[in-house]
Amino acid sequence: MNSLVPLKKISHRGHEQLIRQSRAMDLKMDHVDFAAQTGTIKNYAVTLESCTCPDFQRRQRPCKHMYRLAMELGIFTADTEKVTAAVLSPKNILHTFKSRTSEPVPKNFVVIDFETANNFFDSVCQIGLAVVENNSVIYATDFMIRPPYEDFIHTNIHGITFNDVKNSPTFDALWQQIEKFIAGQTIAAYHLPFDLSCLVTTFARYKIPCPKFAAFDILANVRECRYYPGKLEELDDYSLVTVAKKLRIKHVAHDALSDAVVAAKVQFYLSNHFPKEQTTIYRN
Ligand SMILES: [Zn+2]
Q1: Of 49, 55, 201, 236, whose CB is crowded by the most CB atoms within 10 A?
Q2: pLDDT tens-digit series, residues 26-57
Q3: Distance 55 CA to ligand 1 centre (A)
Q4: Which residue ranges make up each domain of the chain?
Q5: Ligand 1 centre from 36 Cα, in Å?
């Protein structure tokens, strides 16, 4: 299992290495010499200690080709759960979308906001939803969710304890009510990678097929506007709390319902003041 060590005792569990293992799973060796424990992929000469590909040459850490070879030789098994978690982490989630295009900010969208019990993205314990039509919130709601963990380490942030949600439905039981806000819609979030990670990881946990939707990031839009003169120019930070305060929007921070409504109002401010700004729309 640990013979894949070109640099002794390198961890195969870091984010970057886990991503390489995920890519290795989709690779095919062109040739494997089982006796010599070497092989070739796309003209790269691969051994358990080195590879001629640019990635290994640059970083001197196991590349996807070396992981593939080790898998073929039966001496390395990726920790599928950890690999999946890495692939779904915010660092990668936007890259998993099929298309990204720069477009005018939509007038109709649904803001989603999740609170989580702990650092696992599928530990969602509250979802807030704000439905926007023609730049106004026409409906907002939230659901308390019983997460698949009793371990609550973010209670100090949002005030929700396991006791508060232990009798709430699990996400799969709520999905029928939530689906219409997401499937086929344009969703938006304040720091989209986080909420998308929650959504996609939760879909995976409950084996809910991920519906088609479009998505954009309100925080990214706020950051785009920070160079223009105005209330959002060069703030120390661009957390929803800071931005809401600056725009004098009433906000109960880290209540998913309030976060969703406030994020929508922040977008209205942007759309009113910077009507020509475009946003990146992700589609799966
Ligand atoms: Zn390589």
Answers
A1: 201
A2: 899 999 999 999 999 999 999 999 999 998 99
A3: 6
A4: 15-87, 91-283
A5: 17
